[in-house]
Design goal:
Blueprint (H helix, E strand, L loop, with lengths): L2 E2 H4 L5 E12 L2 E6 L1 E2 L14 E3 L2 E9 L2 E6 L7 E6 L1 H25 L3 E6 L4 E5 L6 H17 L3 E6 L19 E6 L3 E4 L14 E9 L2 E8 H22 L6 H36 L2 E3 L2 E9 L3 H11 L5 E9 L2 E8 L7 H9 L5 E4 L3 E6 L4 H16 L5
Parallel strand pairs: 1-4, 17-18
Antiparallel strand pairs: 2-3, 2-8, 3-7, 5-6, 5-8, 6-7, 9-10, 10-15, 11-12, 12-13, 14-15, 16-17, 18-19, 19-21, 20-21
Helix pairs in contact: 2-3, 5-6
């Protein structure tokens, strides 16, 4: 059994230990020690500690029964070793985990919300609460109370109890084990069974900031940041707002209003641009209509085009498809790339997708479509042949002549 020093004292950064078992498999060394300060990965939801053993990087740490296994890529040829954890990472995890306990406790006391799960990631932490939603004022109330407790610097302690002792402890949630139950207490405010590493006082959390909240599978997911993460988040956002205020020549407090005005102006310009483009496509479409040749009462467009934007062609074709008895066959060359586009009005007894499918067995065409419009990328040197074969299939079906 590995003695877990992090359970008694989360502030020990270095420790001497002895190797009691070592195995080599999958090009890695799996080492068990008589004691450790390394927290195992996702034990109780908390990520693993980072650090070294004899200056060799520990790439993974996990539980195996009552033992802790340390995984290294390099071998250790001695029995007595020195453990050293990455303190910055440990402190960050303690701030996030202790902050989660405090945040969950505040939500439970204010709104009777139960925390069903929590997550500590590299960028943010989150909890899932069995409540439907929160308003902005609810979040402000939660943050205010949580940070008041932080600034009040409540003591945090951990201790082991047995199942019979639980009746005297106002637990926020039930423990997952029946014996040697470890309690994390925020000085008379919250009692929670937990095996993670925690701070010794709420003041060390620094600050809690809720970043966002939304519904997830019937629960409310709350993303938050604690301590140094919250400071970093504030720093880059403050720098961004400062730069934006300079660009907009407005006060930092007026940035949002200025951006809303810019957004409204952008929306107006985009609408005007869409209207102008639509009129332009209609004019180009009308010019094409003036050149249409008719056969058996059906208008036929057959064109190979150079360096035309496919989106523009699609819009023109859609406009022309509002007419009647019309077939459009286009080949589009853009540098080394080529594109086939064929469309017809719905009043014609024609299924372009069937023709497209049969030609795809002869040519390499990357695309698809439906009965009235098909398109696809083709080899540039095959475009003309594909267009002619497509036209010939239409000729046989509708008994028309392609000009």
């Amino acid at each position: 059994m590995t003695i877990k020093f992090y359970m008694e004292n989360s502030y020990i950064r270095e420790l001497e230990a002895e190797i009691i078992e070592k195995k080599f498999r999958n090009n890695k060394y799996y080492i068990k020690l008589n004691r450790t300060i390394f927290y195992p990965h996702l034990s109780g939801g908390q990520p693993k500690d980072l650090g070294t053993i004899n200056d060799l990087e520990v790439i993974d740490v996990y539980e195996e029964g009552e033992d802790i296994v340390h995984v290294l890529e390099d071998n250790i040829n001695v029995t007595k070793v020195k453990l050293s954890i990455n303190w910055e990472n440990r402190m960050d995890l303690m701030q996030q985990h202790t902050g989660q306990h405090l945040l969950s406790a505040v939500i439970h006391k204010l709104y009777n919300g139960e925390t069903s799960s929590f997550y500590i990631g590299n960028d943010y932490s989150s909890i899932d609460i069995d409540l439907p939603n929160f308003k902005d004022e609810d979040i402000e109330k939660i943050e205010l109370l949580a940070n008041r407790i932080i600034y009040s610097n409540f003591k945090i302690k951990t201790y082991i109890v047995n199942k019979n002792d639980l009746k005297n402890i106002p637990l926020r949630k039930k423990p997952s084990v029946n014996s040697n139950i470890r309690i994390v207490e925020i000085e008379g405010f919250d009692y929670s069974p937990c095996g993670g590493t925690h701070l010794s006082s709420t003041g060390e959390i620094g600050i809690i900031k809720i970043r966002k909240w939304d519904k997830k599978r019937g629960n409310l997911r709350i993303e938050f940041l604690c301590g140094n993460r919250a400071l970093h988040d504030y720093s880059w956002k403050n720098a961004s707002i400062r730069e934006i205020s300079v660009l907009l020549s407005s006060k930092e407090t007026d940035v949002l209003t200025s951006i809303k005005k810019l957004y409204e102006a952008k929306e107006k310009l985009e609408k005007e641009n869409r209207d102008l483009r639509e009129n332009l496509y209609k004019l180009k479409g009308d010019n094409i209509l003036n050149e249409i040749k008719y056969s058996n009462g059906i208008g036929i467009i057959y064109k190979e085009l150079e360096d035309m934007d496919f989106k523009e062609l699609n819009l023109i074709a859609n406009y022309l498809n509002t007419k009647e008895h019309l077939i459009q066959i286009y080949g589009l060359h853009n540098g080394k790339k080529a594109h086939l586009f064929v469309s017809c009005t719905k009043d014609l007894d024609l299924d372009l997708s069937q023709i497209f499918k049969s030609l795809s067995e002869k040519y390499e065409i990357k695309g698809g479509g439906n009965s009235t419009t098909v398109q696809g990328g083709v080899k540039a040197d095959e475009l003309s042949s594909i267009m002619k074969d497509f036209a010939n299939c239409i000729i046989k079906k509708l008994k028309v002549r392609i000009p």
